[in-house]
Known about the structure:
By secondary structure, the chain is of the alpha/beta class.
Amino acid sequence: MARSALGILGGTFDPVHNAHLAMARAALEALRLDKVLFVPTGLPKYRRAAVASGEQRIAMLRLALAGSEEFAIDERELAPGASGYTVDTLQALRSELGEVDLHLLMGADQYAKLGSWHRPDEVARLAHIAVFARPGIELEGQVRLIPMEPMPVSASEIRARAARGEDISALVPPAVANYIARHGLYR
């Protein structure tokens, strides 16, 4: 019997948007995954903290993923005292899940920086690395490329549009757009 395969898609998800969902679907298909786990980051050491709170980002993820059994949310990086390092998350998942194929999903921009991550060799030992191609970024090393049409959507653009009161309904799932409007997020 084949081992189960789990994709891990980390990020701030501030907010979760349509490109995140398209990436997860592309990975499900290309890698024949059983499930994709969305892992929102807590306080990343490598970038500014999220604008929305952890609770708000989880609420938006729940709305975006509602009805999709192949997607799940893992909140461990939002827990008080969590290290925020991918290697620690992967080690915890490995000890909890045992013999499952873990696939760490990332954009080519993040893959290009993998060498600067905390214990990158251990990250690569714990999970297969799978990368969404980005125009103009060359990939080197042992990596699986996930075919996907680039989507010009960024969370920073969505936050800027929301701050200006502009329509974001084409960039995020409808329930997420409603949540952002209802809670006055990013204003």
